Amino acid sequence: MTSGARERWKPHVTVAAVIERDGRFLLIEEHTSDGLKLNNPAGHLEPGETPAQGCIREVLEEAAYDFTPEALVGVYLNRFTKTRTGEDVTYLRLAFCGRAGAHHPWRELDSGIVRTLWLSPEEIRACPERHRSPLVLQSMEDYLAGQRFALALVHTHPSVLR
């Protein structure tokens, strides 16, 4: 790098689950630096896992449900400035839809998670100021519009799994 050159941009890769049951969507309520916020079960992709595997893990850790991904709803970019530090962060989110399986109420939820909620689209639309990210609403709206892509669209080379 030459002097004055910028550091390479590295977005944070996250996975999220859009889960509908009986016309309601599974969200989590969590403590953030901006107060209590609503989010999809979501989190950072970890080394050694496919995006679908990461999404399965995040749903279990954050909502205590088994999850079976059935389709990719979308791939989203979101830029965010952290309130406390002013850090400029870009997230690359892969949102999957699928079925919630068994609930494991004895499981301790991830740190910061207060509870899980099943909310109607109207309830979610009514409180965008409570969403952790604008992608909560966008991915739900894309899902409701019928946007689905085959899971095979996201290919993970075997080298990642070693």
TrEMBL record:
Cited InterPro entries: NUDIX_hydrolase-like_dom_sf, NUDIX_hydrolase_dom, NudJ
Q: Which residues form a coiled coil?
A: none
Q: Which PROSITE patterns match?
A: NUDIX (PS51462)
Q: Which keywords appear in this protein's UniProt record, sorted alphabetically?
A: Hydrolase, Magnesium
Check the record and name the Pfam families matching this protein. NUDIX
Q: Could you cite one Gene Ontology molecular function of this protein?
A: ribonucleoside triphosphate phosphatase activity
Task: Tell me the ranges covered by the Nudix hydrolase domain, including all copies.
Answer: 10-142
The cross-references to CDD domains, in alphabetical order and at most eight, read: NUDIX_Hydrolase
Q: Which cofactor does it need?
A: Mg(2+)
Enzyme Commission identifier(s) = 3.6.1.-
Q: Where are the transmembrane segments?
A: none
Q: What class of enzyme is it?
A: hydrolase
Q: Which SUPFAM superfamilies match?
A: Nudix
What is the protein's quaternary organization?
Answer: Monomer.
- The family this protein is said to belong to: Belongs to the Nudix hydrolase family. NudJ subfamily.
| Name assigned to this protein | Phosphatase NudJ
Origin organism is Comamonas flocculans
Provide the organism lineage as a comma list: Bacteria, Pseudomonadati, Pseudomonadota, Betaproteobacteria, Burkholderiales
Q: Could you tell me the gene encoding this protein?
A: nudJ
